[in-house]
Amino acid sequence: QLKFNAPIGLQFHTGYNHFTDALGGKVRFVPIRIGAMGYIYQDLIFVYVDSGISFFYSPTTGTKQSGFSLGCGAGYKIPLSNKQLVQYQSCIWLFI
Fold first, then answer.
1. Helices H / strands E in the chain, number of each
2. Cα–Cα distance between 10 and 24 in angstroms, integer?
3. Which end of the chain, N or C, is less packed with Cβ atoms under 10 Å?
4. For residue range 84-94, what is the model confidence (pLDDT) as tens digits?
């Protein structure tokens, strides 16, 4: 995350998600996205939107797919010290 001024920042998001779906199948999902953040309360509560590409793989079905993805969400930061923090984030992803 990079903060430009008081209410606006830039976020680069990447990750690896591995979980079991509702039917018991394994799913792997890797998003790579960039977007904007808006700070609602000081630097602690924020919302964001981002877009980029994502990679999806289901070892259960053998399905592989990659394509454009969108994400949006909100979060809360808990400062631990000057250079450390814990961040909780909730998001919704749309894979196209």
1. 0, 7
2. 36
3. C
4. 888 888 878 77
